[in-house]
Design goal:
It is a single chain. Helices cover 25% and strands 22% of the residues. It is elongated and about 65 Å long.
Length: 311
């Protein structure tokens, strides 16, 4: 039964083909064209795909070249806003220039925004009155800073951990330097403080291990906690006659100060103010006798320095 059905189908198919071939050559031609068309279409698709791939590859290359060019251009010509009325630009030589008026308020300007650009020099133009908190924090490559006479305040951790910064001259117009403004500036060797400054805030020079000499301005009345803590390279500190307070751990571990003279105006020395001092060091208290009692009983805890009272 299966053989009969197969034969019938084969015969029917043969008749159909013969009928198609017998009509005209166009039928055969049509088959050929269709076959060619399909082949051409496949070839065309492949060619088209190849072209698209080629174009895509070319486009990617062009994009890469543009991106590289753009990155290079951006590295040498960055600019933007860093305050309500302040702007910054970065030159090809790594100089960051800030212009405008008022406060620079873009926190972590160097660490976040300019992290892929090496900044070695900072120039702040006249008109800027305040450097906000953490503006230049972790600017590890900054070697020099130029501050304007219009500047009035330096914010919290403004230059924190600027390890390559060696010298800072703060203009006399500055009356406020906030906590840890120059802390962990390992390379800082010299600083000139402004004459109008009244307080050295907490930890302002903490762990500035290369700092050698400091003259505290006459107007300063308070040295807060940790001002010179861990300043192991410090050899000389001159204190003003108007000083009244020395904070906790203020000179802790400042082991290379040979002699420190405390003016008679000082009435408060907080706990552990001189912890870590050795027998080779001397602290002289002016205008006081041995029985003078400071409010904080542990002011000399951890201190082995020679204590001298000069009434």
């Amino acid at each position: 039964m299966k053989k009969i059905i197969t034969f019938a189908l084969s015969a029917a198919l043969s008749l159909t083909l013969l009928a198609g071939c017998g009509e005209n050559d166009g039928g055969s031609s049509s088959v050929t064209v269709n076959s060619t068309t399909n082949s051409s279409a496949g070839s065309s698709d492949d060619s088209s795909t190849g072209t698209e791939q080629s174009d895509t590859s070319k486009t990617s290359t062009e994009v890469s070249e543009i991106s590289d060019s753009s990155s290079s251009e951006n590295a040498s010509n960055l600019s933007g806003s860093c305050g309500d009325n302040a702007e910054y630009t970065v030159d090809a030589d790594g100089t960051l220039t800030i212009t405008g008026t008022g406060k620079v308020s873009k926190s972590f300007l160097v660490m976040d925004i300019l992290r892929d650009v090496t900044i070695t020099k900072v120039v702040i133009s006249e008109g800027i009155t305040e450097i906000g908190e953490q503006i230049f924090a972790a600017g590890n490559k900054i070697e020099s800073v130029s501050l304007p006479q219009s500047l009035e305040a330096i914010g919290y951790q403004a230059f924190y951990e600027c390890k390559m910064l060696k010298t800072v001259e703060i203009p006399d117009s500055v009356t406020k330097i906030e906590e840890r403004a120059f802390a962990l500036c390992d390379g800082l060797e010299e600083v000139k403080l402004p004459s109008g400054l009244k307080t050295l805030s907490q930890g302002v020079f903490q762990h500035c291990v290369s700092l050698k000499e400091v003259v505290v301005p006459e107007a300063v009345k308070k040295l807060m906690d940790d001002v010179f803590v861990d300043c192991t390279g410090l050899t000389s500190v001159t204190l003003p006659e108007a000083l009244t307070k020395i904070g906790s751990r203020c000179f802790s571990s400042a082991k290379n100060i040979t002699t420190l003279t405390i003016p008679a105006s000082v009435t408060s020395v907080d706990n552990y103010a001189f912890s870590g001092w050795t027998e080779e060091q001397t602290i002289i208290f002016k205008g006081k006798t041995e029985d003078y009692e400071f409010y904080y009983k542990d002011w000399n805890s951890g201190c082995k320095a020679k204590i001298v009272f000069e009434p």
